[in-house]
Design goal:
Layout: H1 2-10, H2 12-38, H3 49-58, H4 62-84, H5 86-93, H6 96-127, H7 161-188, H8 192-207, H9 210-215, H10 232-262
C-alpha cells in the first residue's frame, strides 16, 4: 500500500487534479475579492472567510468538475498498468484480492486528498485574508441556511470550524467512493477518456434526479454530504447509497481483475 501511494502521489494525474480543484475554488473567491477591492468596499462589508471558502463549492464550478478530477487523479493510471502488463505481474506476485485491496485503498486515499487538501489550503488562505465569520459583529456575515441543514445552528461557531470540518469529511468520503466507481469502470473499459467520462455521466444523471422521474423515488444529490442542502435524512440516505455503490464497485473491480489475469 505504501509503495502504491508513493507512486500515485508522484503521478502527474494527481497534481493536475489537485491544481484544478484549487484553481476552481479560487475562481469564485479571488474574483469576488478583487471586485470588492476595485469597488472600494470596506473589509467589514465583504464576505467572511467562511463565505469565500465555501463559495466555490456552493456557487462556483467545483461540483461540476468534481467527478472529472476524482476519476482523473488515480483511475486513469489503472489503464496504463493494464496495458503495460504490470497488473498481471503484480497479481502473480501476491494475489488478486490483495491487489484489489491495495488499489481500492490507495485510490480512496489519493482521490480524497486531491479534493480535500485544496479545499483546506483554500480555506486557510482566506482565513488569513478575510475576516472570520462573526454574524453578531458583522450582520452581513449571516448565512441563511435551511433550518434542516445539519450545521444551521453552529455554522458560525468557532469561526465556522464545524462547517469547515464537516464539509472536508463529507467531501473526502464522496471523493473516495467515486474513485472506486472509476476504478470499476477502468478495469472493464481501459480507455482513459471513458474512465473519466462514464463516472461523470453517472454522476450527472444521478444529480439530475433521474430516479424521481423514472421510478418516482427522490434521492439526495451525489454531493449532498458536502453541500448546503445536507440534512440528517439526506445524510443517512446518501451513506446507504454510497455503501451499496462501494460494494458493487469493489465486486465489479475484483471480477474484472480476475478476468484480466485469467485471460493472459
Amino acid at each position: 500500500m505504501l509503495e502504491e501511494l508513493k507512486k500515485a502521489f508522484r503521478a502527474r494525474q494527481f497534481w493536475v487534479s489537485f491544481g484544478t480543484c484549487f484553481v476552481v475554488l479560487l475562481g469564485y473567491s479571488l474574483v469576488y475579492w478583487l471586485g470588492s477591492i476595485s469597488a472600494g468596499e470596506w473589509i467589514e462589508y465583504r464576505e467572511s472567510a467562511l463565505h469565500l471558502a465555501l463559495g466555490g463549492i456552493y456557487f462556483g464550478g467545483f461540483m461540476l468538475l468534481f467527478p472529472f478530477c476524482i476519476a482523473f487523479s488515480y483511475a486513469t493510471g489503472q489503464v496504463d498498468e493494464m496495458r503495460s502488463g504490470m497488473m498481471q505481474w503484480r497479481t502473480f506476485r501476491s494475489s488478486i484480492w490483495k491487489y484489489v485491496k491495495t488499489k481500492v485503498g490507495a485510490g480512496m486515499i489519493l482521490s480524497a486528498c486531491a479534493a480535500v487538501v485544496p479545499f483546506i489550503l483554500h480555506a486557510i488562505l482566506w482565513y488569513h485574508i478575510a475576516l472570520p465569520i462573526e454574524p453578531e459583529t458583522y450582520p452581513n456575515h449571516a448565512i441563511y441556511f435551511s433550518e434542516r441543514f445539519i450545521y444551521h445552528d453552529v455554522y458560525a461557531l468557532w469561526h465556522g470550524l464545524p462547517l469547515y470540518v464537516g464539509t472536508a469529511i463529507g467531501m473526502a468520503f464522496t471523493a473516495a467512493m467515486w474513485s472506486v466507481i472509476a476504478l470499476a469502470v477502468s478495469i472493464w473499459i481501459p480507455d482513459k477518456l471513458l474512465v473519466i467520462a462514464i463516472p461523470a455521466a453517472i454522476f450527472y444523471i444521478w444529480n439530475a434526479d433521474i430516479s424521481f422521474y423514472v421510478f418516482d423515488i427522490p434521492l439526495p444529490s451525489p454531493t449532498s454530504l458536502f453541500n448546503d442542502g445536507l440534512s440528517v435524512q439526506k445524510a443517512v440516505t446518501a451513506l446507504i447509497m454510497y455503501t451499496i455503490a462501494f460494494a458493487i464497485s469493489v465486486g465489479v473491480f475484483y471480477m474484472g481483475c480476475r478476468k484480466r489475469c485469467q485471460d493472459v
